[in-house]
Amino acid sequence: MSDPTTLPGTDYDPGDAIRPLSVRMTEKARLQLEILADLNGRSVTDETRIALEAWIEKSKTDPKVLERAESVRQKIEREAATRRGAIDSIFEAAPKAGSKPSRVKAVDAE
Q1: Domain residue spans of the chain
Q2: pLDDT tens, 96-110?
């Protein structure tokens, strides 16, 4: 796992951390990317970052992506409810914090 490098600034925002990403691509795609970067006066890294940011923005409004995201949210909620239920079932029978355990009085057998 790589450590994020923060951008200059006074307020830390994890969204501003720069982390490396290795991308494998064909030689043809790499050459085209290098030419586009050169034509735009940017580095290959900057050109790649701009393209990825545009793809992320486009995906945020894609109906299929939104549908899958809602499905994932529902699954997360179901799993969380199951886990909450499991925790509740463990601690419902346990004495509450700060309470003293009840003692059963011995009954004299006559």
Answers
A1: 22-92
A2: 666 665 555 555 555
